Amino acid sequence: MIVVMQAHAPESEVEAVIDRLTELGFDVHRSTGVDHTVLGAVGRTPCDPRALEILPGVRQVVRVSEPYKLASRTFRPQDTVIEVQGLKLGGPEVVVIAGPCSVESPDQIQTAAKIVRQAGCRALRGGAFKPRTSPYSFQGLGEEALRWLRRAADREELLVVTEVMDTSQITTVAKYADILQVGARNMQNYALLKELGKLNKPVLLKRGLAGTIEELLMSAEYLLAGGNYQVILCERGIRTFETAARNTLDLCAIPIVHKLSHLPILADPSHGTGLRDKVAPMARAAVAAGADGLLIEVHPEPEKAVSDGVQSLLPEDLFALMEQLKIIATAVGRRLA
Ligand code: PEP
Ligand code: MN
């Protein structure tokens, strides 16, 4: 931590800050300039910079190390590669996970799985427990839907990615899923994260609607601190002042996360835009920006979808997109899984 004192701060104030830092367990290195005194505080004590900023004579406090540890590149310089049934996430290959927003029927998910496989994707998504803004909207078909999802995926040799909304659902969802998704609304459900931290299955952690990148990494830290190192992040758009799209897909988060963390990060251009015709352009951009994979909604008949039909790709859209992604992945030194 670096504490910059106000210009010409009296010696008594500088000394009071040094005393406080020492009490907190920091080694203090003082540098006295013409106008400003700067204090370098070295140590591992967790400390809220605001607790120092309110001390008399302090102008600014700059935190040098990240508040998360296990999720940081400082802790682990090399990329984390998560291997799920032979599929590697976070390595040179870009992984595309596709499927409908919700699992609706055995036929719907089986047809979707065929499309996903035919397009060359490696994993099938589909929600059985749906976090909906309205309690009157379709809430998901629960365990029965998980069974249909697993069966469809197995037939097409795809992995299963599906959401878990609550601690009470973990055992059930883990029985069917290869990767458990924590949705945007649950990014800061710490009770859920703590329980998933004890699980020996990969977790796909989506960024919250109003979550900063630092908060996303702090949530990942909960999983890692619990002992689950199989964490995949996902940028899915955030709430901004812009209303032309459902969300603002923050693609800059991808290179930022890659710099700050060793964890893989996917992009979800479906929830990130909310509009079918915007999904492919943003999917292409995400791969160009270095995303380790994509989470995409596709539906055999989007107009009949019970949720998120307007942002679901038509099967032919997915086929065309996958061809384009192959070229883009190659252009950025990657390849499609
Ligand atoms: C989803 O992936 O279906 C979903 C609900 O996403 P999010 O949590 O990002 O809204
Ligand atoms: Mn959806």
Could you walk me through the main structural features you see in this protein, from its secondary elements to its overall organization?
Helix 3 (106-119) runs parallel beside helix 11 (315-331). The longest helix is centred in the C-terminal third of the chain and has 17 residues, at 315-331. The protein is built from eleven helices and 15 strands. The chain has two domains: 2-62, Phospho-2-dehydro-3-deoxyheptonate aldolase, domain 1 (Alpha-Beta Plaits), CATH 3.30.70; 82-336, Aldolase class I (TIM Barrel, Alpha-Beta Barrel), CATH 3.20.20. 34% of the residues lie in helices and 19% in strands. The radius of gyration is 23 Å and the shape is elongated. Bound molecules: phosphoenolpyruvate and manganese (II) ion.
Overall mean pLDDT stands at 97
- Strand adjacency order, main sheet: 7-8-9-10-11-12-13-14
The stretches of 5 or more residues where confidence is low (pLDDT under 50) are none
> DSSP helix count?
11
Please tell me what the overall shape is: elongated
Please bin the fraction of helical residues: 25-40%
CATH architectural category of the largest domain: Alpha-Beta Barrel
- What's the CATH topology label of the largest domain? TIM Barrel
Characterize the largest beta sheet: strand count, sense, and whether it forms a barrel. Answer: 8 strands, parallel, barrel
Bound molecules: phosphoenolpyruvate, manganese (II) ion
Using the coordinates above, name the CATH class of the largest domain: Alpha Beta
Q: Secondary-structure element order, as H and E?
A: EHEEHEEEEHEHEHEHEHEHEHHEHE
CATH homology group of the largest domain = Aldolase class I
Number of strands: 15
Kindly estimate the percentage of residues that lie in beta strands according to DSSP: 15-25%
Number of self-contained structural domains: 2
Structural classification: alpha/beta
Give me the Rg, rounded.
23 Å
Q: What is the straight-line distance between the termini?
A: 42 Å
